[in-house]
Amino acid sequence: MITSGFVAIWLAWLMAGGSPGPATMGIAGTAMNEGRRAGLVFALGICAGSAAWGIAAALGLSAIMLANVWVFEVIRYVGVAYLGWLALKALRRAMTADEVALGKPATGSLPTIFAKGAAIHLTNPKAILSWGSIYAIVAPNDASLSMLLGYFAMLYAGSLMIFIGYAFLFSSERMVRTYRRARRWFDFAFAGFFGVASYKILTVRLG
């Protein structure tokens, strides 16, 4: 199940999760303005929404596989295109001097902050596309439901690490300053990694 190809894609998954977006910037903004506790709760809400889509995608793809294997392959190439789009987006950010703004902080009671975090993923159609694509990329065409759920556990562990890590890191003003100074270099790294990952998926059959 765990191959060198999967490790490379898992790292790309981490990079995608850590790249600037509504979830990561929302966690950063909340942690910086409302404190570490609020940032962690917001991150856990996002993780809950991500888990819902991840499990739903695994169940749905398992059912689709039984009837139309070709759909799985189509989704795999959608995932390749998505990685390519992330590479171009990161490169465009790296080529501009504009600063990436941190997200608007989530406020309210802790249950409210958690719900706001969950809503980010539950209302974002890109979330289920991302999960469906990553399954189709890393899993063989005859993947069983148990195999897909196994991949979910490993990928979700990476998501937890990224989102919770953001809550810890961005509750430190020093980390925020460091990120802003090195932002363009991070984006160049994101662009290169996504581009290589997309190329590898196109040229190497994972299974």
TrEMBL record:
Domain of life (superkingdom): Bacteria
Transmembrane domains' residue ranges: 38-62, 69-88, 148-170, 182-202
Membrane topology note: Multi-pass membrane protein
Keywords: Cell membrane, Membrane, Transmembrane, Transmembrane helix
Subcellular localization, as worded in the UniProt entry: Cell membrane
UniProt keyword DNA-binding, yes or no: no
InterPro entries: LeuE-type
PANTHER family xrefs: ARGININE EXPORTER PROTEIN ARGO, THREONINE EFFLUX PROTEIN
Protein name (Swiss-Prot/TrEMBL): LysE family transporter
Native species: Ruegeria atlantica
